[in-house]
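Margin note from the TA: students keep mixing up input and output lines. Inputs are the sequences; the output is the structure of the whole complex. Example:
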Amino acid sequence: MLRDITARLTEGYRLGFWLLATVVVAAAPHVGLNPSVTRQLVLIAFLSLVVSGLNLSFGYAGELSFAQPAIYAVGAYVTAAVSMHWVNDLLVSLVISMLGGLLLGFISGIPGLRLGGWVLAISSLYLVLLVPDAVNALKRWTGGFQGIGGIPQPELFGALLSPTAFASVVVIITSAWFLVLRNLVKSPFGHSLAVLRESPVLASSLGISVYSTKLRAYALSGLPAAMAGTLFAYLDGFVAPDTFSVSLAIVILAASILGGSRSVLGAFVGAALLQLGPMRSTAFGEYAFIAYGLFLIVAGVALRRGLAGLREDLVARWGSQRRPEPGAVDTSASPAELGLLEAPQVPLTIEGVSKSFGGNAVLRDVSCSVEPGEVVALIGPNGSGKTTLLNVISGYYKVDEGKISIGATDMTSMSTHQRARRGIARTFQTPTVPPLTVEEVVTTARLQTDRHSLLATALRLPSYRQALAETRRVARSLLDAVGLRPFANEPAQALPLGTRRMLELSRSLAGAPSVVLLDEIASGLDGEEIEELSRIVRAIRAQGVSVLLVEHNFSLVRELADRVIVLSRGEIVVIDTPEAVAEHPEVLRHYLGAPVLENGESQ
Amino acid sequence: MITTILSGLALGSVYTLVAVGFNLTWLTTKAVNFAQGGFMVAGMFLTVYCYHQGIPVALTFLLLALVGSLVAVVEYLVAVRPVMIRGEHSELVTTVGALTVIEGVILLLVTEEAERVPFFATDTPVVSFLGGRVAPSDLVLIVLAIVIALSVHLWTTRTRTGLAAMALAEDREAATLVGVNTRWFSLLSFAASGVLGFAIAPIVGPKTFAIVTLAAVLSIKGFVVLAVGGVGSNLGALIGGIGVGTIELLVARFLSADLQNLSVFVVFITVMLLRPRGLFGQQSERYV
């Protein structure tokens, strides 16, 4: 019931409400809001901006970075320098410090790219330690440890801003940023971050570059802190280095976790609660650190998604959720409705590939190919190298020797995401689905084909809307084809295993691939689901896609495969039609396990 | 020059001791205990208190060891064990929380935010050594860092219990299966890191002074040393600490004090980018 009501609060309605709230709050200082209350409002705005930056890197990109106070400092000092020595205009200062924030956010993210976790946390915290040194080294511009005063009152388009007008500008800028942030995280870009958090392995198989996506998120996370820095410098016309301390980093983290790190408005709620509560009262001061510390421990242990998580849980409890019963999936759609986009029809060629792990040869001189419109099955006993071969084709492992190409393109030295962008799609033995809706999961396969700029995403430009509509159309027709359309808006992680396999299959097709790698896709499916699966695989073949299938179920292999590759101990035993392979003496021995007599007949 | 290097060695020894503390708990829980720097600073203030109360030196050390193990065990039970199994770096948040609590308690109890820590062994301010001038506490510090890092290194590579701890770091589940009591090991390792952190404070204090904000700095620099040397390697912690401390003070002496911290940062980032597992770290396999 509640779910239906919230669904009716459409995007436009919410936007209208947000704009109205912004206008009311921005107007309040002009109609007699107490100056001390106005000041609190402005301070909440600063803190919420900084916290929202942390939410972007910690909550959405998934790695804890403490760099926010350093970026805040850059914004403040850049503004001091620009407005005192060059030109006093709020917009000019804002733009320059935002550029600085982007740059520092970007730089702060680099050390964590390969290592993540602790290295990112400590290197970003180190940046905060460096603030006083940097301020002292640039004493001429920053005033050193004592701080710098005399920053002029800001001008905007040549008009001097009174303190009340300035407060309104702060409210409007903060509101605008939150709108932009919301547009960024509720978009394909936000989805790619969700995929990345769930599994970098999955992300790269979808053509998402792990490094560049993370770096973009870190760079963006520097924007709001830099904006807050500019506004902070103008507030009192005074900036000193002790504002940007390790303690501030702790406060920011506490506010982020309190409001819910993976939430847009949570940044605002967390900042407001900390600003109005502990940060204002001096009586609390003595116990402040103990309280923050205890809160971080309790929140880290128990309150994992903050107040925003609490709200979501309540909505989920009161709203009804539909989950497909096994077998409830409608499979009546015809293969023609698959709606695959035209992909170049190219063969996958593997020539003399060898791979060993620490002296243990897993693949030895493997050569084979998959032609367009052909289904090739890869069979062999456990440990024969089937999945390793798929991983080598995907690019998770680099080959020791040999060559892998798609059409005329040599892919041997390409990374996983580059190969995915060339048209290699795959599924995994254990389906991996990020915490998104069923439809969104399918669209994640098109994140790279339908790239739109972050600017278009942030401002919801027509180019973004068009691309998104097209992506949705493809996703829906695929969901129709596999019978998952009724669950398009349900959380994908709640689906039963068989349905998740179907979802993974539709995702692998959404990017219009030339080559599809299916890793034991039929395991755990019931008879009806397997029938549905074969129907879809045939439809894929009919579209001229090259399909490589790892499968244990030999009757399914017989039914689907044009050719079968038998692998044993990393070597190809035979490549032939399913019928011929079923009779092959070596195969009977290696794969089916039947002892073979000297004359080659099986017992 | 020699004076600067000796001073750098002593500073590096402090980082090494923090890093060895990190290693102890990392081995058994795969969590870097960010409160380690806080242990040291808390120990310094406790030392100052004991000194003013006229408590004998031996008793002071005993008290430090006792309080240290207690604080660390409580931290483990409250902030680390509940999040350990999750394996998603929740301990990043909770151990930072523990450090903040320790800082808060110190701030609440002490009158001065910075205190001189007395050195028990001698009153001589500086002595001559190898042509340089050095405080006796610095020499003791260097020797202690070498002895402690090497003995922990030998313990983890040569003894039965040490190898069990290493097995734990490698694969917790497998270690449990072959009969290593993982919970007990984790608890003991935290106790040991607490004892190390607190009891070393009277030796570190004379060099650094007892300052509340030092706690986070020590943890950060200690982690830098840990990462540069290679997480899990105590030999790496020793070499990394000595290297970082010496570079830091040489830069401060011959270039500019403003570049001191920056130089360490540059070393840190360079090593991380060129050799992500650190100088003495184990190569970790990549899983798909």
